[in-house]
Amino acid sequence: MKEKMEGKEVSLTAKDLEMATLRWWLMSHLSYNYQRMQAGGFASMMGPILKKLYPDKQEEVIAGLKRHMMFFNTEPRWGAVIHGITIALEEQKAKGEDISEQTIIDLKSSLMGPLAGIGDTISGALYKPVILGICLGWAASGSLMGPLVFALALLGYDFFVTRFSIRKGYQLGTSAVTTLLEGGLFKTITTFFSIMGLFVLGIMVCKFITVDVGFVAVLGGKEIVFKDLLDKIVPKALPLVITLVSWRAVMKGYRIINILLSLFAFALIGGALGIIK
Q1: What is the mean pLDDT of residues 251-277?
Q2: Does one domain contain both 198 and 214?
Q3: Among 29, 20, 25, 21, which Cα is nearest to 49's?
Q4: Which domain holds residue 241?
C-alpha cells in the first residue's frame, strides 16, 4: 500500500476509503445528466484519491479525472464495488504496476451493467418495497414514525451498503464480483427480502384492503351477516380473494390499468346493488 515515489510516499488509508464512501454517498447523483449519467459523481469521488496518489504529477491527476468523466451508470449502492476496485487499480497504477488507462476504463464499462441488475433487484425491487410496506401502516394512522423510519431506513441502507461495497471492491480487487457471487451473498440477501416481502404483502392485504359486504340473511329471526360469518371461517378472506384474483390477472398478462378499472367497476356496481357497502 506504500511506496516511495520521487521523495513522496504513495499511501491510501482507511480514512481515504471512508471519505470516498462519503463523497459518493452524497454526490453520486448531484451532477447526474443524460450525457454522462453518474460520471461527475464518480470523478468527484476520485479527485482526492488521485491528488493523494500523484502529489507532484498534476498531469496524472488531470488524466485520471478525464477517464473518470467518461459515461458511467450503475446502481449506486451495490454497484459501488466498481468504485472500490477502481481505487485499488489506480493505487497499483500509481505504484508503477503494469495497469493501463484502458484497463481501468474497460473494467468499469464491463461491470456497471451486471451490478446494476443485481443492485436494482435488491434495492429497488426487494428492500425498498418491504420497508415502505412496514412504514405505510404508521403513516396511514397519522404517525410521524412512518415517514421518519422510512427516511432513516433508506439513508442508513444507502450509506452502509455503499461503505461495504467500496471496501469489498478495494480489498478483493478484480475478483470482488466473482467472490461475492460464489460466496452466495447476493442470493442470501435476495432470498431474505423475498420472504420478508411475502410477510409484508400479507400484512398489507389485511390492513389496507377493506371489503364490507352488505348482504345479510335472516334465519329463525336472527340476522346473519355474511362478512362476519366468512371471517369466522377464514379471516380477511375477501381481501385475500381479490388480491389473488388480481395477481392471477397480472400473471396472465392483463394490463394493470385494466385490472384497476375492473375493480372500480365491480365496487361501483356492487355498491349500487347493495352487495358492497
Answers
A1: 85
A2: no
A3: 20
A4: 209-273
- Tell me how many domains the chain contains: 2
Q: Distance from CA of residue 265 to its chain's centroid?
A: 35
Which pTM was predicted? Answer: 0.73
Are 109 and 173 in the same domain?
Answer: yes
Report the C-alpha dihedral over residues 8, 11, 13, 17, rounded to 10 degrees.
110
- Please provide the average confidence, as pLDDT, over all residues in the chain: 84
* Four-residue CA torsion sign, 9, 12, 14, 18: positive
Say if strands 216-219 and 2-5 run parallel, antiparallel, or are unpaired: unpaired
Q: What is the pLDDT of residue 108?
A: 92
Q: What is the pLDDT of residue 59?
A: 94
Query: Which amino acid would we find at residue 261?
Result: L
Return the HEC string of the chain.
CEEEECCEEEECCHHHHHHHHHHHHHHCCCCCECCCECHHHHHHHHHHHHHHHCCCCHHHHHHHHHHCCCCECCCCCHHHHHHHHHHHHHHHHHCCCCCCHHHHHHHHHHHHHHHHHHHHHHHHHHHHHHHHHHHHHHHHCCCCHHHHHHHHHHHHHHHHHHHHHHHHHHHHHHHHHHHHHHCCHHHHHHHHHHHHHHHHHHHHHHHHCCCCECCEEEECCEEEEHHHHHHHHCCCHHHHHHHHHHHHHHHCCCCHHHHHHHHHHHHHHHHHHCCEC
* Co-location of 142 and 240 in the same domain: no
Residue 90: count other Cβ atoms within 10 Å of its Cβ: 22
Amino acid identity, position 70: M
Q: Which residue has the higher pLDDT, 106 or 214?
A: 106
User: Which of 141-150, 218-227, 238-247 shows the lowest per-residue confidence on average (mean pLDDT)?
Assistant: 218-227
For residue 2, pLDDT beyond 50: no
